[in-house]
Write a structure and sequence with these properties.
D-Maltodextrin-Binding Protein, domain 2; two-stranded antiparallel ribbon; Arc Repressor Mutant, subunit A; 10-stranded mixed beta sheet; 2 domains; alpha/beta; 12 strands
Length: 297
């Protein structure tokens, strides 16, 4: 049974004639007769009482007519109702953000998106960049913000920023009076860095090794504020993106430019290559790309 069986059945019932129904439906009388016969066989009842002059609905046919009309009406309206639902811009998104992400910018982005698309629900998850990338690959997140160069073989992406790291040092430290330092000048310092699920963890260690030393790490954390407080207690130094160093005044620390080598904090929006993007996901992607590229991230 398909929608054609129902439409032909309804037309025969309306015309009380196989020949008239066939002419209106632009099919042969034998074809429409066979379809009605197949329908009766599938249902196990006679839908019409036939004689040489007319065709009349049986009791079963009258009952089935009402149900068939409802189904055909729903089918006819399906495309229009789907288009209307689609245009309502509803859905759900899951987005992974590392704690190092500049909170204000992304809070404003998400707030503006929610204002424009109130029926799209967003679920936010905080992970280090490595875990964000892993969950994007697994398909458990729709989008992610990562602080590293994305793997173009696995992800689609667009760049948000390349922010140089600065060295944050206690004001009593001799290096705090300098305008810039080289990484090799920090070989005897105690480092406070992000945990190993953050991309900057590996990048800082690798750059230190290239500069000729293994960094002495006294503390690993996922919390920027805890990192700053540790430096403010004069327990060590830390490397942070320059944009995160603008509000450090009054905390007994200074931010000094890291000159050689320059280590960049790269931020990108990623999503899995080849993954189907829902309408809600496409709306967010277009909105985020436009908003973030117009914002001084």
């Amino acid at each position: 049974m398909d929608i054609h069986h129902l439409r032909y059945f309804i037309e025969v019932a309306r015309q009380n004639s196989f020949s008239k129904a066939a002419a209106i439906s632009h099919v042969s009388q034998s074809a429409i007769s066979k379809m009605i016969k197949d329908l009766e066989t599938e249902l196990g009842v006679s839908l019409f009482s036939r004689n040489s002059k007319s065709v009349q609905l049986t009791d079963a046919g009258i009952l089935f007519l009402g149900q068939s009309q409802q189904v055909v009406s729903m089918f006819n309206n399906l495309a229009a109702e789907f288009a209307n639902e689609f245009k309502l811009e509803k859905g759900r998104l899951s987005i992974g953000l590392p704690p190092i992400t500049e909170a204000t910018v992304f809070a404003q982005l998400l707030g503006e998106f929610k204002k424009k698309y109130p029926q799209i629900d967003m679920e936010l998850y905080e992970h280090g960049s490595k875990n964000v990338a892993l969950k994007i690959q697994e398909g458990t997140l729709d989008f992610g913000i990562i602080c590293q160069a994305p793997d173009n073989a696995v992800f689609e992406s667009f760049s948000l920023a390349n922010d140089p790291l600065k060295v944050i040092i206690h004001l009593e430290h001799p290096l705090s009076i300098l305008t810039e330092v080289d990484l090799k000048d920090l070989s005897n310092e105690s480092f406070v860095i992000y945990r190993d699920d953050f991309s900057l963890h590996d990048e800082i260690i690798n750059q230190c090794k290239l500069a000729g030393f293994q960094p002495k790490i006294i503390f690993e954390t996922s919390q920027r504020e805890l990192m700053i407080q540790t430096v403010a207690a004069n327990l060590g130094i830390a490397l942070l993106p320059s944009r995160l160093c603008s509000d450090l005044c009054g905390k007994q620390i200074n931010a000094v430019t890291l000159a050689n080598p320059q280590i960049l904090h790269q931020m990108s929006v990623i999503w899995r290559k080849g993954r189907y993007l829902s309408h809600a996901a496409q709306l967010w992607l277009n909105f985020a790309r436009k908003y973030l590229l117009q914002t001084d991230v």
